[in-house]
Design a protein that fits this description.
Belongs to the complex I NDUFB2 subunit family. Keywords: Electron transport, Membrane, Mitochondrion, Mitochondrion inner membrane, Respiratory chain, Transit peptide, Transport. Complex I is composed of 45 different subunits. The protein has helices spanning 2-18, 47-70, 72-76, 89-92; strands at residues 29-30, 37-38. The longest helix has 24 residues, at 47-70. It is 48% helix and 4% strand. It has 4 helices and 2 strands; from the N terminus they run αββααα. It has a two-stranded antiparallel ribbon. The model has no long low-confidence stretch (mean pLDDT 77). The chain is mostly helical.
Length: 105
């Protein structure tokens, strides 16, 4: 159900983004150089590549949101604080009771 809603949402967003028209349509094409050069517009893109880009973008956002929902501790790095009662004297750097300090001469 989420996948079908997401695809419909992608279709609607794509169609609404195509209806936007620039205030000044200044396009001049130069044909003398061998390549098509377009001023203030992107070169035409094949629809297949557009669909592939939309699919990869959808997959990327699905991956990010899925992991934010299920593995949020990975992103927030929630680490439990260790219990200091369980620490040993050696870990705290406390010498044993029978330790005698020797003087270096």
């Amino acid at each position: 159900m989420i996948l079908s809603r997401g695809l419909n949402l992608l279709k609607v967003t794509y169609k609404t983004s195509q209806n936007k028209v620039a205030a000044t349509n200044l396009q001049s094409v130069r044909f003398n150089s061998g390549d098509d050069w377009v001023y203030r517009a992107s070169p035409p893109v094949e629809k297949n590549w557009l669909y592939v880009a939309e699919a990869f973008g959808g997959l990327l956002w699905w991956w990010i949101l899925w992991h934010f929902w299920h593995d949020y501790d990975h992103f927030l790095e929630i680490v439990p604080y260790p219990n200091p009662v369980k620490w040993t004297d050696e870990e705290l750097g406390i010498p044993p009771d029978d330790y005698e300090e020797t003087q270096i001469e």
